[in-house]
Amino acid sequence: MKGDPRLSVIDRRLEKVGRIIAVTGGKGGIGKSMVSSCLALNLARSGQKVGLLDLDLTGPCDHLILGIDSPFPEEEFGLVPPLASGIRFMSITYFTGERPAPLRGTDVSNALIELLAIVQWGELDFLVIDMPPGLGDALLDALRLLRRAEFLVVSTASRVVLETVKRSLDLLGQVGVPIVGVLENMRRREGKGVEELALQNGLLFLGSLPFDEELEEALGDAEQLTQTAAASALMRVVRNALLT
Question: Which domains, and CATH codes, for the chain?
């Protein structure tokens, strides 16, 4: 990675972006992509200029959640993300289609650098980034490359997930990146496990999104997604944590 001329381009690509919100959680299956997609939708519905970057290189799904089937991005001194549902969107799926993209080691780093260096975001109020799952090389590379990112950490109340998210928070703390707060997703019953985890780490607890069966039916329909209980709850988080 060191000495790669593309590294100097990344900061320039992001210089007209107001805030970069990186959504992470340290584990797959916690609804991180749904939160990222609905977060971008809610910000756009609030009158913000918004971009959404799916950095899950091996299992991208934001395009499926939002029903995005745009043609390949236009080229103008880089790739210009197409506008869909009021959001500038970019994903590795524009290069791979629905084919699997098995990557490891230096291939992961190279793909991340290329995706960040080639995209011409232009002026945005917010760029929401759906971060790579887990705590592996992809996340570590993204942490190095996205120097202005603020992290929104997603968790569920599962004890297994809480333990993984705790390790994720430890890593973010060691790196010293700013953390917007911790968000509980898919809440099924009363309990304060996620809130206590946030407070134990001196972080803001952003609130809880309910387990919402309507989300499955709304997949692929951005307008219907915004009408779900989970998206409505997330809108309150957006207003309180990002727009005040």
Answer: 7-242 (3.40.50.300)
